[in-house]
Amino acid sequence: MSSTESSTPTIILVHGAFADGSSWSRVIPRLQAEGFAAVAVQNPLVSLDDDVAHVQRAIDRTKGPVVLVGHSWGGAVITQVGAQERVKSLVYIAAFAPDAGQSPNDTLKPFPPSAGLSGVSVDKDRFLTLKPEGMARNFAQDLPAEDAALLAATQGPVAAACFATKVSAAAWKTKPAWYVVATQDRMLPPDFLRATASRIGARTVEVDSGHAPHLSRAEAVAAVIVEAARAV
Q1: Does residue 114 carry a pLDDT above 60?
Q2: Over the stretch 26-74, which tens digit does the pLDDT of each residue have?
Q3: 73-81 and 48-60 are packed helices; what angle lies between their axes, rounded to 10 degrees?
Q4: Residue 178 has pLDDT above 70, yes or no
C-alpha cells in the first residue's frame, strides 16, 4: 500500500431487493462516528452483472482496503465481486451467500417458502415489487408504519431473473465473513439464514428483528460491521 493510501478500510454497503441505498441511513452515521468512510451503492437490480459492475465502480473510486456489506440479494452480489485483493472482509445481513455455480434460488430450495412471498407483485417485464401491505407485514414489521410506507415508496423493483442467476465465484471461501441472522425474518426463513451462516463459516450474530435489521436494529448491525472493519 502506498503512503498516500489509508489503512482504514472503506465500508461499501450493498442493498438488496425491494430497497435502495437509503436503507443504510441509520447505519452510516454510526460507522462514520467510529471513523470509517461508508459508501452506499445504488444497485439497479436488473441483473447480477449490473449490480456487480456498480459495486466494482464503488471499489475503484476508493483507495486502500475495503469491507463489503450485503443485505439480502446484496449478499449474492458481494459473493460474486468480493474475491479481489483489496476486499478484506465480507458482512452478510440476512443475506444470500451462494456457492460458485449456485443461484440464490438454489440455496433456498431445501426450505419452505417464506410468508413474504405472498406480498410480492410481478409486472409484465418480470420485475418484482413488494406491495405496501407486504412491506409492512413481512419486510418491515418491526418498524413504525410510516417507515414501512417510505420503504414501499422508495423500493427498487428487482428483476426476477436475478434470483435464478448463478454466481461464478464465492468470495467467502477466501475472505473472513460475518453474518447477521434476523430471527424474526419473514422474507428469508431464519433457519435458512442460520444454515447459510454456518455453511460459509461466518462469525454469526443473531438479532431479534425482521428482514431489515440495519433499520430496526441499526446499532447492533453497525457493531458487527465495525468489528469486521477493525479486524482488517
Answers
A1: yes
A2: 999 999 999 999 999 999 999 999 999 999 999 999 999 999 999 999 9
A3: 60
A4: yes
Query: Residue 217: which of 228, 205, 227, 229 has the closest Cα?
Result: 205
Pull the grid cell for residue 73.
440479494
Which amino acid would we find at residue 196?
A: T
